[in-house]
Amino acid sequence: MDNKNNVQSVERAVDLLFCFSMDEYELSISDFVDKTKLNRTTVFRILQTLKVKGIIIQNEQTGLYRLGYEFIRMAQIVNENLDIRQDALPYLKKLSKETKETVSLNIIRAKRRICIEKVDGTEDIRQFVELGYPYYLVKGASGKVLLAFNSKEYAEEALKEWESVHGTIINREEFYQELESIRENKVAISDSDRVFGAYSVSAPIIGPDEKPIAGISISGLSIRLTEEKKAVYKKLIRDTAIEISNYFNK
């Protein structure tokens, strides 16, 4: 995607909002500075603007910031208009019941993978997937299965962004070979890639224009993923993705 038309102040404001997570729902100015590498004055000015608009609120006693109530209203609008989330849910429930693992539905937003629906498995002993959290696309099968069907330029931007944050370089030849394999097989598998000790098996949901509109994933503990299960889950996830795709394309 082309960055030349991006508005820097808006991009920075979004970066600040992406700093929040289920574990870190209250942040200080220092937290924002550490996470975004923006200077303190810039962070303060953006936070003040977001406060005025009700996007974030500040605890006057502690000085910490959290997401504002305006997000509740916007979340309701999103939920009521995400037909794919509602229509795919029965398929997710069926697959989770069959595998006893967590099944999630993911989309791309602003070079991130967002989980918009999930059904937790009965075998889980910890959470690997958070609803609404912006995960990087370049790590884990759930992100790569979406990234594989985008342009190489888009993938390169996602790679560079991850590398700039984490300070490590991803082998381009191996990475693009993996994406090519995902495109050919319409399935992605990862093991201890995004989260150590966790696996994911993912497949794309294809829309009427032959482009992916979402991805569906089975996730769980690596210790449970035998070679036999891996083969079974690859077939199950592909078949389920095809079923959902056919539902939207009929």
Automatic annotation (TrEMBL):
Residues 7-69 form the HTH iclR-type domain. The keyword Transferase does not apply. It comes from the Bacteria. Coiled coil: none annotated. Signal peptide: none annotated. Residues 70-250 form the IclR-ED domain. SUPFAM superfamilies: GAF domain-like, Winged helix' DNA-binding domain. Keywords: DNA-binding, Transcription, Transcription regulation. It holds the Pfam family IclR_C. This is IclR family transcriptional regulator. It comes from Oceanobacillus jeddahense.
